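Comment thread on ticket #2218

A.B. wrote:
> Attaching the input chain for the structure job we discussed in standup.
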Amino acid sequence: MAPPLPALSPLDSRPDSLTERTIEAVRQGVRSGALLPGELYSVYRLAEELGISRSPVREALLRLGETGMIRFERNRGFRVVLPTPHDIAEIFSIRLALEVPAVGRATRQADGNDRTAVQAEYAAMEKAAAANDVSLFEFHDQKLHTALMDAEGNSRTKSIVNNLRDAVRLVDASTVGVDRSLEEVLIDHLPIVQAFEASDPKAASSAMEQHLRTTGRLLLRRALLQRGEDPSEESNLWRRLVG
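C.D. wrote:
> Ran it. Output below, let me know if you need it in another format.
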């Protein structure tokens, strides 16, 4: 029998991002220790704790399940599975392979609506950084990357990348507010946005590659430290899986 869930804060009923905010609630539950890796939890109880219907909870858990970070047990519930340093290196290897050429194509073919969408997300990141709102900043960070992929037009690429981002968000695998300030992360995105606005696909691809490599290596090092492993292994693991 699945154990009762520790108290989680209820979500309000705004429909615009219930699935996203359920993912964030699960992530915060893992971070705070309310949700323990390996423990069996009930989907129904999670919905009750969050004060929302089961549909967005199922959708959020299915998205996390696609990343490998949630494992379902038929007619029983779900378990949280944390990504290893090896997982994080693999995730960034895939993101580099997909997002770098995608942002080049997006920049080459973007129209005015695409540029407006990217500018709006960057402005929302600026506002969140000024308010020191980490959760909102990370939400718009992901929306910015999504807007770039929307301009590229490959829905499968977008889906895969969003799932990979969910995987690292689940366990607070973010450099925001720990390795780098919100302002530093914001500035790290600026060359991508500027190249996109200037219709310079080569510069956009180069800026995206630099951004992903910087972020990935910081996350990999942190994951090694969190597991009590030798952080010097970061270079070997990155070179072997990412190059």
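A.B. wrote:
> Thanks. Noting for the ticket: The longest strand covers residues 70-73.
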